[in-house]
Amino acid sequence: MTPQAVDPANPGAGAAVKAADRAHVFHSWSAQGLIDPLAVAGAEGSYFWDYDGKRYLDFTSGLVYTNIGYQHPKVVAAIQEQAGKLTTFAPAFAVEARSEAARLIAERTPGDLDKIFFTNGGAEAVENAIRMARLHTGRPKVLSAYRSYHGGTQTAINVTGDPRRWPSDTGTAGVVHFWAPFLYRSPFHSATEEEEGARALRHLEETIAFEGPATIAAIVLETIPGTAGIMVPPPGYLAGVREICDRYGIVFVLDEVMAGFGRTGKWFAAEHFGVVPDLITFAKGVNSGYVPLGGVAISAEIAATFETRPYPGGLTYSGHPLACAAAVATIRVMEEEQIVERAAAIGETVIGPGLRELAERHPSVGEVRGTGVFWALDLVRDRETREPLVPYNASGEANAAMASFAAACKAHGLWPFVNMNRTHVVPPCNISEAEAKEGLAALDAALGVADGYVA
Ligand code: PLP
């Protein structure tokens, strides 16, 4: 699907949208007076455009969720059809769209994760997965990785490792953080992936021993951490975590809110590692975010805990028919158009090689890592020392290098995903080869700007 439509420029309409936004919309994660949101006039496929008629290739997939691109006609039609048939219905009833979405998701989750609890997004999925684990085990604590993001609600933000946790960290959430493997910035001074995986497992075991195994309900990990840097875990690591969880009766939660539904070139990233967790959290790609939807896929054993004992959690819009109809249509489109396979192929043949080629020519690129349509460039001031291009959690002047890089991308018609010293290449899973190459060319130009900050 190559989008050609760009609405005619209408700067007056854009100015009105912007003015109402600035007057009344309170934005996420932002100092309200310091932001300047772009007014968006429309979007299609891998592109969106503003009211001046300027078009951007979206290398962010929104917030890494439009896995089938914007405005897929079949999914839009399915939402319209469902709206005409049954726009909404309460969660206690069996409703066709909800039943079918649950069936299609359960068919694709690994192992026996065959029951689906629906939420409105990823954070609520994480909240509920942790509640299930605590009730199933009767234990209070949760272990999660420092380099992670699990959502903005109270438990999910406390499980999160990145600095967005700090203002909401009560220190009483029952969460203990540990270091997951990341060879390029190894917390364990490892020289190889094998060493990193083994040392990370030993560190996790020691953390559990010193915390007290019988106090730990769950280990929560992103299968491939997303916002924190797209670190593909070393072979054997997740299987090792599975084994540790089994040994201590700990529930293993894999958070696939970002990595799931095709992003890594598989339906679920867990498939890359041959691991079946006890719970999988999902959202985003399940219906490309056309209508808010998330959920928890639940193993037979954990589902059995709540067979005769009520599960003490619920949401008015759990399994909303519009969202579920969008999920059904999205999954069908992904099958028909082989979107998961295409994500794997474009990563292997175009994006991965293209990024490695950029790394050869740009001294600001320290490492290229990823798979499918899930890639990170770790930008550095110095390739030898691996000093990040900007300090951890930098803002203002200290973040000038990344701000200039992002501005250069936009000037070249590319909307980049930027987090700390990294840019992530996370376009829709069905991006065409020509579009991917167009984005790589824009990155090439913008990395020239980043190179200017190399020591
Ligand atoms: N978990 C992961 C891995 C995520 O990447 C995100 C969002 O980026 C969340 C949870 C939270 O999802 P939501 O923003 O839908 O609540």
Salient structural properties:
single chain; 455 residues; alpha/beta; Aspartate Aminotransferase, domain 1; Aspartate Aminotransferase, domain 2; 2 domains; seven-stranded mixed beta sheet; five-stranded antiparallel beta sheet; 14 helices; globular; binds pyridoxal-5'-phosphate
Topology (SSEs and partners):
Layout lengths: L10 H14 L15 E5 L2 E4 L4 E4 L2 H4 L8 H13 L10 H13 L6 E5 L2 H16 L3 E5 L8 H6 L15 E4 L14 H19 L4 E7 L14 H12 L2 E5 L14 H4 L5 E4 L11 E5 L1 H6 L15 H16 L2 H23 L3 E7 L2 E9 L4 E2 L11 H12 L2 E2 L1 E3 L2 E4 L7 H19 L4
Parallel strand pairs: 3-14, 5-6, 5-7, 7-8, 8-9
Antiparallel strand pairs: 1-2, 2-3, 4-10, 9-10, 11-12, 12-13, 12-16, 15-16
Helix pairs in contact: 3-11, 4-11, 7-8, 12-14, 13-14
The protein binds pyridoxal-5'-phosphate (PLP).
Pyridoxal-5'-phosphate binds next to helix 5.
Describe the fold and architecture.
The protein has 455 residues and is an alpha/beta fold. It has 2 domains: 11-71 and 338-451, Aspartate Aminotransferase, domain 1 (Alpha-Beta Complex), CATH 3.90.1150; 73-336, Type I PLP-dependent aspartate aminotransferase-like (Major domain) (Aspartate Aminotransferase, domain 2, 3-Layer(aba) Sandwich). The chain is built from 14 helices and 16 strands. The protein has helices spanning 11-24, 61-64, 73-85, 96-108, 122-137, 154-159, 193-211, 237-248, 270-273, 300-305, 321-336, 339-361, 400-411, 433-451, and strands at 40-44, 47-50, 55-58, 115-119, 141-145, 175-178, 216-222, 251-255, 279-282, 294-298, 365-371, 374-382, 387-388, 414-415, 417-419, 422-425. The protein has a 7-stranded mixed β-sheet, sandwiched between helices. α3 (73-85) packs antiparallel against α11 (321-336), α4 packs across α11 and α7 runs parallel beside α8 (237-248). The longest helix is centred in the last third of the chain and has 23 residues, at 339-361. The site of pyridoxal-5'-phosphate (PLP) has 16 residues, from α5.
